[in-house]
Structure formats: C-alpha cells, structure tokens
Specification:
By secondary structure, this protein is α/β, with parallel strands linked by helices. The chain has helices at 8-17, 33-43, 86-95, 110-118, 129-137; strands spanning 20-24, 47-51, 57-58, 61-62, 76-79, 100-103, 122-125.
Length: 138
Amino acid sequence: MSFQNPDDEAIRQFLLSIHRIAVVGLSPKPDRPSFAVAKVMQQAGMKIVPVRPFTESVLGEPAFASLSDVPGKVDLVNVFRAADQIDAIVDEAIALNIPAIWIQQGIINKAAAERAQAAGLFVVMDRCIKIDYLRLCL
C-alpha cells in the first residue's frame, strides 16, 4: 500500500462536513502556525478542541492533555506534532473511533498514514488544513 492524499473534491466535501476538530499540539502562542491555523478554522465556524498537556485553554477553549481526555464526538484530529510522534496519535485516533486525521504540512509519516487509512480513517498528510479550506471551500 502506498499513501496518497484524497483528491481536492473529496477534501472539499470532507471539510464542509466537519464541525469539531481536536488540534493536537495547538500552541497558546499567537505567533505559532498551529494557533493561526486553528483560529481560521474557528472563525470558519468549526469548534476547536485544543489537545496540549499543561495548558488550560487556547483560543477561548478548554485544553485537554490527550485525545482520550476529550469529551464528546470529534470529527477530525488535526496534528501539529513531529513525524516521530504521529504513530501514537494515529493509534489513539483509531482506538477512539475518530473518523479522520489531518497531518499538517511538513509532517510526513507514511506508515502511520497508511495504517490510519487501512483502519478506515479519512487521512490527509503534508498539507495545511487552513490553506485547503480557504482554497477549496470559500
């Protein structure tokens, strides 16, 4: 199996269907890319759930230490962590039956992405959700 991102139309349809995004590695610092990306998605009407240990809140939303700590349904896990940390995040998303994972631009872990796809998750890797949302959905 070789990983390939979904085509633009599939990504567009997916982005228009989601409501709640758990952002793993969301920084509380406004100058960080994760903050800027999450802020745009929040302004687009999506509920942002920060997942970052030792942080109380980001963008006015309470933060959680891990995906397992997030209450309620999550439509997407958006990941801002190093490639060597993706395996554990994918495993947790699969175990929690989260239907999709978006591995941000510049982060590549093909084995983890393939494992997530094989488990039935909608997977996008090495692309920016903010860029794709602005390009495909507005």
